[in-house]
Amino acid sequence: MTGVGGAPRAFPCLALDIGATKVEAALVRPDGTIGVRDRILVSEHADDLLGAIVAMARRVILATRVEFVGVGCPGPMTPGGEQVSPLNIPSWVDFPLRSRLRDALDLDVYVDGDARALALAEGEFGAAGDDSSFLSMVVSTGVGGGIVIDGRLLSGDSGNAGHVGHLNVVPNGAMCSCGAYGCLEAEASGWAIEARTGRPASEADRTTRQRTGELVGRAVGTLAAVLDFNRCYIAGSVALGFGDEFFEMANKAAHSVAMLRYSAHLEIRRSGLGVDGPLLGAALVGWRGSS
Description:
The chain is of the alpha/beta class. The chain folds into 2 domains: 4-116 and 276-290, 2-Layer Sandwich (Nucleotidyltransferase, domain 5), CATH 3.30.420.40; 129-270, ATPase, nucleotide binding domain (Nucleotidyltransferase, domain 5, 2-Layer Sandwich), CATH 3.30.420. It has helices at 49-61, 97-105, 114-125, 184-188, 190-197, 206-227, 237-242, 244-257, 277-290; strands at residues 13-18, 22-28, 34-41, 68-73, 108-113, 134-139, 143-149, 152-153, 231-235, 267-270. It has a 5-stranded mixed sheet. A 5-stranded mixed sheet has the order 8-7-6-9-10, with helices on both faces. Strand 7 and strand 8 (152-153) form a beta hairpin. Helix 3 (114-125) packs across helix 9 (277-290) and helix 6 packs across helix 8 (244-257). It starts with 12 loop residues before the first strand and ends with a helix. Residues 1-6 have low confidence and may be disordered.
């Protein structure tokens, strides 16, 4: 079977989805179905997170033929994920993730940003199958994205393209974890909403839900006007938890800034991926890297 970019998919891929809260591992078959899987909580392995990830990976691939590993990890990172510095895993600064996993598992390892990996999954297994250009976003604890133009996931000079959470949406706004002020992530993410309101995003009032949708929509509309895409697919607990109200406000706000004729059909929609989207994306990183 062949997937994104003509990548061969003859064997299952060990997929690792690394997040600030949890890390999941799974065997992903060539057709996108999930086999054996496991997860750990980051907070329970502060002293040796990598060791816990390796032990989990070994449990998952026991007695199964696996030739490579695909990893989705928060950034920023150096090209190929040779060194990662996830903003929400402070113990990993310039951490040599790829080489450490490769040495521990004796397998080829391919690493990309978690939100970028999700964009691959949206195009292959989700709602963007008919789109040659689209934006894939996550609005959850943090805000991230992946941008596909003319069928290619944009990488940029260092492989970090797609960090849409660091678009400035509120000049001189709240301080972001990146050090800037007024980033989308500092204003519309789950952690930002809790910091601003004193309540978790799941308990946000209507004003907060509408504000969040408006800020996300303005960011999407700005990018759509610059990059010429007409679909944005959003996943994540904040966006999906806020429901129709979020998407209605986001679409309205997007069109208020994307006024050029070629943006007339811009739509912000729910992701077509379920809870396994991040693992599917990590597997696609592996298949694509091995091609």
